[in-house]
């Protein structure tokens, strides 16, 4: 059995992501559309194909702000919390079809969208002393879609270098 046939790599248009990431003035409806509603439709579509093929894996990528709100980002945090709950609901609804759904709760990641000033402010609160490289997130996704993770479903796995612990320790509002 070639498990890799079951793996679907979703590529989002970087311009759309950049627009959402840079636009802090999104209203509630725009935020939900940008960060949540599209995924509901997308995964409903792909789940039908996974059912026909006898199973599959879904890995949603959320943010540490799905559990740790950030000042002035209520819409973003709400949408990310919705994504985490969507993942749990999908895990329940799709389990009988041999489809596992999990969610990664990610802290800072070094990409071209990372604001260097924000990164400078965040790193002191991260016990690991840095933000993640994209490959580190990718390796966790690769594990979750592998046969070794066949018993993991409905989970939110935090990969943040201890950032949430740093929030607790420093009590800083980043």
Mean pLDDT: 80
Give me the count of strands. Answer: 3
Roughly how many Å apart are the termini? 46 Å
Question: Low-confidence parts, pLDDT < 50 over ≥5 residues?
Answer: 1-19
- Classify the helix fraction into a percent range: 40-55%
Instruction: Briefly note the structural class of the backbone.
Output: mainly alpha
Shape: globular
Beta-strand residue fraction: 5-15%
Task: Describe the protein's architecture and organization.
The structure is a single chain. With 174 residues, this protein is mainly α. The protein has 6 helices and 3 strands. Strands 1-2-3 form a 3-stranded parallel sheet, sandwiched between helices. Helix 3 (74-94) links the parallel strand 1 and strand 2. Helix 2 (28-53) runs parallel beside helix 3 (74-94). The protein is globular. Mean pLDDT is 80; it is low at 1-19.
What would a concise description of this structure say?
The protein has 174 residues and is mainly α. The chain is built from 6 helices and 3 strands; from the N terminus they run H-H-E-H-E-H-H-E-H.
Give keywords.
about 10% strand, mainly alpha, about 45% helix, globular, 3-stranded parallel sheet, single chain, disordered N terminus, about 170 residues
């Amino acid at each position: 059995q070639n498990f890799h046939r079951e793996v679907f790599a979703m590529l989002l248009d970087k311009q759309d992501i950049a627009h959402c990431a840079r636009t802090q003035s999104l209203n509630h409806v725009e935020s939900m559309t940008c960060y949540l509603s599209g995924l509901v439709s997308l995964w409903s579509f792909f789940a039908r194909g996974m059912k026909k093929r006898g199973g599959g894996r879904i890995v949603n990528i959320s943010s540490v702000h799905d559990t740790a709100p950030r000042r002035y980002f209520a819409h973003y945090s709400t949408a990310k919390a919705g994504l985490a709950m969507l993942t749990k609901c999908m895990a329940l609804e799709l389990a009988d079809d041999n489809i596992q759904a999990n969610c990664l709760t990610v802290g800072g990641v070094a990409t071209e969208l990372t604001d260097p000033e924000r990164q400078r402010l965040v790193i002191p609160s991260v016990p690991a002393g840095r933000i993640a490289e994209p490959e580190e997130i990718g390796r966790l996704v690769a594990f979750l879609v592998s046969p070794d993770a066949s018993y993991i479903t409905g989970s939110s796995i935090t990969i943040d270098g201890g950032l949430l612990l740093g929030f607790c320790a420093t009590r800083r509002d980043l």
